[in-house]
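Appendix C reproduces, verbatim, an entry submitted by the partner laboratory led by Prof. M.T., so that reviewers can inspect both the input and the predicted structure.
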Amino acid sequence: MNVSVFGLKLDADVIAGMIAHAEREYPAEACGLILCRGEGQPEITDRELKLVPLKNVQDRYHALDPKTFPRTANDAFRLDALEHARVLEAAARDGWVERILYHSHSDSGAYFSPEDRAMAVQGGVGMIPGIIHLVLSIRQGRCAAMAAFRFDDARQHFDEEHVSIPGEHPSDGAVLPDLELRGMDTRVVELIRPVGGLLVTRRLTLSESKTLPALAEGRQVVVRDPSVLRDIALLAGGYYSPLSGFLRSAEVRSVENRGRLPSGTPWRRAIQLTVKNTDLAPSIVSGCVVELVGPDGDGCALLAVAEVTPHERTTVLGGPVYVYAREGRDTLLDGLPAVDAFEQRAELLRRSARQVLAVPKCLQAELEHADVSEFDVVLSEESDGAGKDANGRSVLPLVGHEDAWLTAAMAQNQGATHIWVTDTALKARILDTLEIRPWRSAVQGAS
């Protein structure tokens, strides 16, 4: 079966070779070229295509300078410039030209990310004139979707086409959505960048919450630990952005050993779902979908199981979480505000707030004695809504954590520019890993 991408017909063997390359490289992102010969040359009756897999050298850059290049090959790609140039030089001698640049996304959708767009366009002009960008979604090692993108210089816009997959894997039509696409628009990130640079909701729509549980096919895990339920709620609301769900073993080890995710994003607590082996059905394996059920017996989320790590008495499940929307219920758990991290940031923008102070619960008693006049808005763990302090300053809710560093990271995701800190070691960790700034009341001494 041949397919067409922006009018360019691709042979089935070229598509199959590209899919095989991407699946072979998983969980790393694959990249490569499709060359064309004979296009626009009337003396050649049959246009030829050639697949050229290339090396993804992102890990090389990450190893040399993890601060400048925080992403690994598992969530980014970078061509070897010398290899690319040599391929094009040899191709040109035989009349070949590059028509498609392809790359894969591991366990996420076939979309053109902000990073992809930044690499493809500079100064409003496509870096490679006329090039088609093809993105493959590889989930649990298998190609789930493909899409093509082409930049229109005149309209300053990326056109998009869905690409059918020859012999694609069977589906009943119900698929988990690409929640990466549900991030807030870029203006909501104006105040201060979220930890990791992406603010994404993990909440399903109401209609999806009614239909998608069928994907679990009856597989359930009862979540009895209130702290795990809270983690699910925080993931859903963007407080843990950019985390998408429960961490896999490599991510857990990286957090425990380096205080960072493998991508380089600072993180100081491994968020994982640990299940007693007696509660784990044999049918729960990597690649399946599981419904997470609270102590009340009601389903609260779906887990797309990407990894199953067995231990002597327990098993750790890793993978993205998709949290249900609820009719008549604003939050997954009592005690969390109705607004989530995105809505909080949007509200701060509506108020034109440029200086926002987060006040952890442990310092709440000090707030009335502190001079916070430099701030437009205060975020407080003790606030239950849109209140005001004695000076008429807006006080909005802050969702925090028992771990002080995580409170700072979550405050950054909620739009705070500063956080009140009294502990010197914590201040140093925040300065080293986050963009939110530590602040100390003048009553206690300068920071």
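The chain has three domains: 3-170, 206-323, 351-439. Additional entries are available on request from the coordinating office.
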